[in-house]
Design goal:
It is a single chain. The chain is 65% helix and 2% strand. The chain is mostly helical. The protein has three domains: 192 residues, no CATH class; 59 residues, no CATH class; 47 residues, no CATH class. Strands 1-2 form a two-stranded antiparallel sheet. The radius of gyration is 28 Å and the shape is extended. It starts with a helix and ends in a 6-residue tail after the last helix.
Amino acid sequence: MNKKLSNYLNLLQLSYDDAVGFLLKKYGPVKNNYFKEKSYKRLLAGEIKYPAKNKISRTQDGLYCHHIEENKYLNINDPEFCKQNHVPFEAQKAEKLVYCDLIEHYILHVLITIETNAKFGWPGVRTYFIDNIVRWYVVKKHLPTYGWQLSCYKKAYLSKTETKCLFNETKKFLPNKLAHGLDIECESSIYSYEHEDELQREYEDQMIRFSFYQIRPYLIERGDICYSSKLCTYLEYLKNMQICSSRTEQVAQSIIGEWLISEIKRIIEIKDRKKNPEKYVLLDKLAELRDIYNRKRWERKQLVNKQKEYSEFHSKYPNLQYLDIDPDVNRTKIISILYKNWYSNSFPSRRAYKDSVVELYRDDLLRELNEKINPVEW
């Protein structure tokens, strides 16, 4: 057993308070609060959704920031949870934070799980840490190649054997039910990554089948069975899904039978129309009116939702109406605008600026952009 794994296992044997004290001594104290106090109080008052953060990140050193009072509150770094559970600002203060690498962070949550009988700590272990540790150190899939994630990956690196040893040692400290749960979560995560391509193909099959039914009305042309041309149209449509064309054709062939059944039903209807034309005059008219009504209803609903979305967005960020920015604008575009107009002289590259704001929420970036825009200039 190497020294690194031995140190992790020694940490696992400490109490939660002693483990926190050890890490504070190892990495030093956090020098600022997690959220800015005034902004956080506005969150609790319901004035904003996302409070501003202080710059305390040490991810470039491979370290995460852990809230010490996660043994009292769930998701203490999530603004929505903080608001719902009335988490006091004291829990966000610098003295209630500690730096740790990925494995140490995992161990802290395991210790919380043990000491609170899984009331706290376990959700993080189950939904976040197991998946990330398995992905990086067991199956070695989607490994980071640059930036802060690469630093975090290297800082806590363990071999596959060492990682499995860590999980096995963890089970010794957990109640039987949770130890069994840890086994299940590990096996599930390993399976999902080792069979990733197979699971992705199953997902694609479902999406192709779904798409077939979405475009089915366009495949059926009254009075004529244009099988080849319609299938080509269908395949062309599916190219937009960015799925391998050979795979698309393979799945398409598997559902041709369903398509032919629909064609047979259509032919039967055509013959019935010739025998009973009066019957279908009324049915067609009713169907047409129903389609018109449903289409207009959908269009009205879409328009109202869009207007509401834009209204709420511009009410929250009034100055952004002077830019060509939609409510669903992504982080990349926001960062590009901020860098181009205000930070190009402060950072050597756009990537450097992007790395500096990696822990900021999208709303933090939008708020900053809104504050920097002068309506007179724009």
